[in-house]
Design goal:
The protein is mainly alpha-helical. It has helices at 2-18, 22-28, 33-61, 64-84, 88-102, 105-116, 121-145, 153-171, 206-227, 229-236, 243-266, 272-292, 296-304, 306-324, 330-359, 362-368, 371-382, 384-388; strands at residues 185-186, 192-193. Strands 1-2 form a two-stranded antiparallel ribbon. Strand 1 and strand 2 (192-193) form a beta hairpin. The protein starts with a helix and ends with a helix.
Length: 389
């Protein structure tokens, strides 16, 4: 357990060096919000397809630790020219590669840990919370030390390479992946699988696909937070390097939700369905706060809702997968969640969002994106019996 906690800590430390700084890195090159939106959307395209491919590779070979190292090293190599090149074409190409490799690690890690923990949401919650703690701690350190400098791409690139190297080192101590079952298997829906089959839509139920659609709607709105909020904090709220503290505040609330929510689910006090509904409600309220209360105190309250908009959703989906997907397809299911239900809708959200900011401003962005979590909530409630069973 301790080794997996270290692995999660180091992985999310690398995320903290990449995710909050990507928009700033591109803005440092003088790119408009529209062009930044296009480039980030191109990176999201890579993170749609490649996580599924690497997830299937992990499921089939169980050489997950080796894949972790190769993907992390490849990310480091591609990220440096992304940050430093003066060519738009080189920036786009290298960012595409870096996104394809780096954002394949998270879903693969989720499937890997689901297997190691054998679907125990309490253990998974503790491990994932340690990752959130790594994200939180690094953001606080970044804000207090001034490293990386949010206006210096060399500083951002160096920080990324260092955190990825630490992650590779921690992989050496991670436990081996669970061996793959052999022969004919029967999954939770009673569907027989043939050994060696590459992919079939029958591996997942209609309930799974419906829930992924619900999640996808909320993730369109999540693009505002994950991909477009850093510039709002530095350019509109004038937070400068302190913006990392506000991102860390959201991570702190996520940490609490993952630990508490995981334990409550394991005890049967709350369901995966209930947490996913909570996330849709939280996203709606969060965007409305951004729109109608553009002050620092209100922004702090909105950041605390990250506990619902990501923390509740993520552990809810992880438990939903453990309950409704055969163990041999955990990594593929989580890759589907990350690629199709998260990265694809975020690609749509960020692509449109950049143009909305340039033409109408952030206020219109926040207000218009409320429609997506509201629609997700309606679908969830209309299909409560099916999704909560």
């Amino acid at each position: 357990m301790f080794r997996l906690m270290l692995l999660n800590f180091s992985l999310q430390a690398a995320v903290s060096a990449i995710a909050p700084y990507t928009q700033l890195l591109l803005r440092n090159k003088g790119y408009s919000h529209s062009l930044v939106g296009v480039i980030v959307a191109i990176g999201q395209v890579a993170s749609i397809f490649f996580p599924v491919l690497f997830g299937m590779l992990s499921d089939r070979t169980r050489k997950t630790r080796l894949l972790f190292v190769l993907l992390a090293l490849g990310t480091a190599v591609a990220f440096v020219p992304t940050a430093l090149s003066g060519s738009v074409a080189v920036t786009i190409g290298c960012f595409f590669v870096a996104s394809a490799l780096f954002w394949s690690i998270n879903p693969m890690n989720d499937g890997y840990e689901n297997r190691v923990f054998k679907g125990d949401s309490s253990k998974y919650g503790v491990g994932r919370a340690m990752g959130t703690l790594g994200y939180l701690v690094c953001l606080v350190v970044f804000a207090l030390t001034g490293f990386p400098v949010e206006t210096d791409n060399r500083s951002i690139a160096l920080c990324t390479v260092v955190t990825l190297s630490v992650f590779c080192f921690m992989v050496l101590f991670a436990p081996k992946d669970e061996p793959r079952n052999t022969g004919m298997q029967t999954d939770t829906q009673g569907i027989l699988e043939e050994k060696g089959r590459f992919f079939s839509f029958d591996w997942f139920s209609s309930k799974f696909y419906l829930m992924m659609f619900v999640v996808a709607l909320t993730r369109i709105a999540e693009a505002v937070i994950d991909k477009l909020l850093s510039s709002y904090m530095t350019e509109e709220l004038n937070l400068g390097g302190r913006f990392a503290l506000f991102v860390a505040l959201g991570a702190a609330s996520e940490f609490v939700m993952i630990v508490v929510g995981g334990r409550l689910m394991q005890k049967g006090k709350v369901s995966a369905y209930g947490l996913i509904v909570l996330s849709a409600i939280g996203m709606t309220v969060r965007l409305l706060i951004y729109r109608f209360f553009p002050t620092i105190p209100a922004f702090i309250v909105a950041q605390l809702l990250h506990a619902c908009t990501f923390g509740a959703l993520h552990i809810g989906v992880s438990k939903f997968v453990a309950q409704n997907v055969n163990e041999s397809h955990y990594s593929l299911a989580m890759s589907f969640y990350w690629a199709i239900a998260t990265n694809l809708p975020e690609m749509i959200g960020v692509l449109a969002g950049g143009f909305v900011i340039d033409i109408f401003g952030y206020g219109t962005l926040f207000a218009s994106y409320v429609v997506f979590p509201v629609l997700a909530l309606v679908i969830c409630l209309a299909n409560r019996r099916k999704l909560s069973s």
